[in-house]
Each structure stands twice: as C-alpha cells, then as structure tokens.
C-alpha cells in the first residue's frame, strides 16, 4: 500500500500530461491487482459556463489516470486524477482590455475562456449484464490556470490572438456531481478497455465576488479508458503461484 501511495503521488505531481502517460505505462503492472484496475482515461469534453451570455460550448481534450477498486459484488469505486481537465466556454463577446490598440483590434472578434483544473472524481460504479455500467458521485477540482483568448480574423481565420490571464478571478476549488454510463469493449476479459459518457455539473459558483447569477461549470465527457500493465500483473501473479 505504501508503494502504491508513493506512485500515486508521483503521478499527481507529473503535471505534464506526457510525463503522466510515461509513468503510467512504466508502473501500470505495479498498480493492478485482483481488486484494483489501473489505467489511462481520456477523450473529449464539451464545457459550458452557466449564465454567461452569449456563449457556446467549448470542445476540449481531457487526460488522466483511473482506479476501479472492487468493493462488493458488481459494485466498484471509480477514482483517479484528470490531470488535463479544463472548463470554459467559447464565442464570448470581447470586452475592454484597457489598451486602445487591442480594443480596436478585437472589437469585432470573440473570446474563448479556458480554466485549467486538476479533477478528482469519486464515483460509485455498478456493473451489470457483464459489460455495462452506470456511475455517480462527486468530483472535486483544483484550478491551476485561467485565461481568456481574444481572437479575430484580419487576413486569415483567427490570425490575431491575445491571451489575458484571468485565473485570479476564479476560485481555486470547484466541486460538483458527476453521473455516467459506459460499456466494456470485451465482455469475457475482466479488465477491458471501456468507452462511455459522463456529465458533470458544478455546485459552486467559481467566479470570485460574483454579483450576478451563478456561473457554474458543466461539462459533457466522452471518454475511452485503457487498463495499463494488466498482462504483466497477471504474469507476475501466475509466476508467484
């Protein structure tokens, strides 16, 4: 257990997604057992911010690692860390930046808002019919960065851009509820790749000193999960026996 905690800490500290993937590939067999499934979890999420008008959903990538911990029967605990897990919104109206040149350049453009987070889902997961599952529970997030990207088309599409740091306008901690459903790709394999969908809705207004309507985050996740090191772990178990 001590070794697992050390490895989890190393994974969390590997903020760079490439580093996380490398560590996961190298140590996946150590973290897998008959009670625990460990792997990589990633895909697309479509993020929105409530009461931020006008705006549209923003398509983003997410990437992390997961643990499916067997509890009793078909019930499991799904957790882990989404190291790359962003919230935000797209096609916001531009606002004054306090610089006449920038204001003139982007007055006819639009703004893309991105809030970068570490996210930790803590979901109860129930498997049925051998390969399907449903899940629900809280998700906590730690804000790391935040910026508005101003865009406009001068000579080509979106060829003029400017990033404006807004992280201090947003709270460090977010919390909400996540629900989801998915399916294993291979019914007869205990630890199989899975695909599914999850929906998250934040219960905290993330905007500091907001005097208007709450601007809760929401996001629709389309994910693909891959168990790592399963065959190595099974080979070690068979050798030990």
Mind explaining what this structure looks like?
Strands 1, 2, 3, 4, 5, 6, 7, 8, 9 and 10 form a ten-stranded antiparallel beta sheet that branches. Helices cover 19% and strands 51% of the residues. The model is unreliable at 1-7, 12-20, 22-26 and 231-241 (pLDDT under 50). The protein has four helices and ten strands, in the order H-H-E-E-E-H-E-E-E-E-E-E-E-H. The protein starts with a helix and ends with a helix. Helix 2 (17-31) packs parallel to helix 4 (230-240). By secondary structure, it is α+β, with helices and mostly antiparallel strands.
Task: List descriptors.
241 residues; alpha+beta; ten-stranded antiparallel sheet; 4 helices; 19% helix; 51% strand; disordered N terminus; disordered C terminus
Q: How do the strands and helices of this protein lay out in sequence?
A:
Blueprint: H1 2-13, H2 17-31, E1 36-49, E2 58-72, E3 75-92, H3 100-106, E4 110-121, E5 123-128, E6 132-152, E7 160-165, E8 173-184, E9 194-202, E10 217-227, H4 230-240
Helix pairs in contact: 1-2, 2-4
Number of distinct helices: 4
| General form | elongated
Strand content: over 45%
Quaternary structure classification: single chain
* Average pLDDT, all residues: 86
| N-to-C span | 21 Å
Enumerate the spans where pLDDT stays under 50 for 5 or more consecutive residues.
1-7, 12-20, 22-26, 231-241
Nearest-angstrom radius of gyration? 20 Å
Q: Can you summarize this structure?
A:
With 241 residues, the chain is of the alpha+beta class. The protein is built from 4 helices and 10 strands, in the order H-H-E-E-E-H-E-E-E-E-E-E-E-H. The protein is elongated.
């Amino acid at each position: 257990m001590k070794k697992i905690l050390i490895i989890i800490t190393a994974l969390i500290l590997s903020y760079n997604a490439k580093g996380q993937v490398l560590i996961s590939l190298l140590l996946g067999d150590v973290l897998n057992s008959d009670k625990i499934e460990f792997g990589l979890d990633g895909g697309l999420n479509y993020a929105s911010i409530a009461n931020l008008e006008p705006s549209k959903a923003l398509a983003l990538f997410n990437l992390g690692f997961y643990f499916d911990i067997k509890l009793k029967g078909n019930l499991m605990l799904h957790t882990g860390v989404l190291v790359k897990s962003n919230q935000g919104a797209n096609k916001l109206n531009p606002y004054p930046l306090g610089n006449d040149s920038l204001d003139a350049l982007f007055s006819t453009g639009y703004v893309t808002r991105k809030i970068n987070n570490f996210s930790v889902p803590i979901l109860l997961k129930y498997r049925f019919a051998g390969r399907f599952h449903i899940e629900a529970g809280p998700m906590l997030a730690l804000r790391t960065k935040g910026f508005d990207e101003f865009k406009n088309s001068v000579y080509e599409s979106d060829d003029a851009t400017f990033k404006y740091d807004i992280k201090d306008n947003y709270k460090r901690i977010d919390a909400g509820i996540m629900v989801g459903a998915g399916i294993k790709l291979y019914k007869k394999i205990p630890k199989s790749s899975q695909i599914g969908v999850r929906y998250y809705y934040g219960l905290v207004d993330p905007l500091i000193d907001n005097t208007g309507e709450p601007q809760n985050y929401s996001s629709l996740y389309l994910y693909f999960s891959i168990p790592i090191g399963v065959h190595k772990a099974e080979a070690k178990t068979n050798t030990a026996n």
